[in-house]
Recover the amino acids of this structure.
């Protein structure tokens, strides 16, 4: 060993760990190199990206019970709006924002629906997009996660079970509430009750009348309307007849709510599979997908 050798000290590297990076969703501190927030599991890329931008991103949520069609809807919406020359064009920020679109379109192109969203928040897909709206000078920054319906209902039944859901829904400026029209049409009361639970949870999140959910825009979207044309004709009337609890809640507690109907698939058939019967879309015929989102975005001046 040479006693005169100069060894560089690496301990200065530890200094950067002393400065905490706040998570964009829950605000808690994390190390500068964390990939996901250790408190709520939201990607830390959201915090790093928003620090570099002048405009603060708007957070929009897509809520609904398990199997309501959130993943299919969001994946198709992202795909439709990523094409140029439209009233609203979305441009992904960060490769992670494209995963949901990629997985959904890959499944649909093979005549399959995408897999169920896992309940663990660290496995959710987050979408961070830059939105160019025709006739508008400034672009908008939007953040939308694809949350699992089971996790949403677990948080509602046991508040604080999923801190990321509570933190996100508290800070959101608007929401799309997806409701399974096919199940409602079959007289499934659970769908109505679960959506009423979601609305009650939202309205109790913030007491302030002006800032609370009663004053935030809410697009109620009847999904799978391709399976019951009734929904497309007049979504509000469909709500009044098939989901009276939801309709009443919206009228009384959500001043800025509007009803829509959407469908992604055309004809669907059941295919026998090892696990039993599997619903297979023979054709993809998106209808009414963009309208609720355009309305929601138009609510932010
Ligand atoms: N006919 C028809 N079926 C649909 C449509 N969208 C979804 N589905 C059916 O509904 C199922 C659930 O859709 P998802 O998008 O995975 O539902 P989700 O709300 O993300 O469910 P979780 O991930 O459990 O919260 C799909 O596997 C399809 O069988 C649609 O537009 N039309
Ligand atoms: Mg899903
Ligand atoms: Zn967090």
């Amino acid at each position: 060993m040479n006693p005169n050798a100069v060894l560089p000290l690496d301990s200065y590297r530890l200094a950067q760990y002393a400065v905490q990076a706040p998570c964009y969703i829950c605000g808690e501190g994390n190390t500068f190199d964390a990939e996901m927030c250790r408190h709520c599991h939201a990607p830390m890329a959201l915090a790093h990206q928003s620090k570099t931008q002048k405009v603060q991103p708007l957070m929009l949520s897509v809520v609904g019970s398990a199997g309501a069609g959130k993943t299919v809807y969001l994946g198709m919406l992202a795909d439709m709006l990523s094409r140029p020359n439209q009233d609203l064009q979305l441009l992904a920020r960060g490769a992670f924002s494209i995963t949901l679109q990629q997985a959904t379109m890959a499944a649909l192109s093979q005549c399959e629906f995408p897999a169920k969203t896992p309940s663990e928040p660290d496995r959710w897909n987050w979408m961070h997009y830059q939105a160019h709206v025709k006739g508008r000078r400034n672009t908008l920054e939007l953040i939308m996660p694809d949350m699992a319906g089971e996790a949403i209902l677990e948080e509602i039944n046991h508040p604080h079970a999923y801190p990321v859901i509570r933190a996100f829904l508290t800070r959101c400026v608007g929401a799309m509430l997806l409701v399974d029209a096919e199940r409602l049409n079959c007289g499934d009361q659970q769908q109505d009750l679960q959506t009423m639970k979601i609305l009650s949870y939202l309205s109790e999140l913030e007491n302030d009348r002006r800032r609370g959910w009663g004053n935030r825009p809410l697009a109620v979207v009847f999904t799978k309307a391709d399976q019951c044309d009734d929904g497309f004709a007049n979504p509000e009337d469909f709500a009044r007849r098939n989901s009276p609890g939801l309709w009443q809640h919206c009228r009384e507690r959500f001043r800025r709510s509007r009803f829509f109907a959407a469908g992604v698939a055309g004809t669907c058939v059941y295919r026998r599979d090892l696990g039993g019967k599997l619903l297979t879309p023979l054709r993809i015929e998106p209808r009414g997908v963009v309208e609720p989102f355009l309305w929601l975005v138009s609510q932010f001046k």
Q: What stands out?
A: Residues 17-48 form one domain. The chain has eleven helices and 13 strands. The two ends are 70 Å apart (CA to CA). Residues 23, 25-26, 28, 37, 39-40, 42 surround zinc ion (ligand 3) (CB under 6 Å).
